[in-house]
Design goal:
94 residues, binds zinc ion
């Protein structure tokens, strides 16, 4: 997992810092890896991708949303393509 700072510094908006994003992509490529997913949080919900998430999805990867409802956090994953989001099964492995 590579952490990238939220350039917008907002609890309701996420914009990856472009310098950190470029460094992450270069690190992935230089290590022979493949980007398979991007996650971000929705600290106050919703637990699904937003209209903005769909509009700004730029990479063919799984988009994971970590959200909180009350005191409980959850994770859901979505594939976004052609302006539509479809939930995909998320399996965690150790
Ligand atoms: Zn979002």
């Amino acid at each position: 997992m590579i952490k990238i700072r939220n350039q917008s510094q907002s609890p309701t908006r996420f914009v990856m810092d472009p310098y950190e994003q470029l460094n992450a992509f270069q690190w992935i490529e230089s290590n022979g890896l493949e980007l398979v997913g991007i996650f971000h949080s929705h600290p106050t919900g919703p637990e699904v991708v937003s209209v903005t998430d769909i509009a700004e999805a730029a990479y063919p990867v799984v988009h994971v949303i970590v959200s909180r409802a009350g005191r409980d956090w959850s994770m859901r994953a979505f594939w976004i393509e052609n302006g539509r989001a479809e939930e995909v099964e998320l399996m965690l492995a150790r």
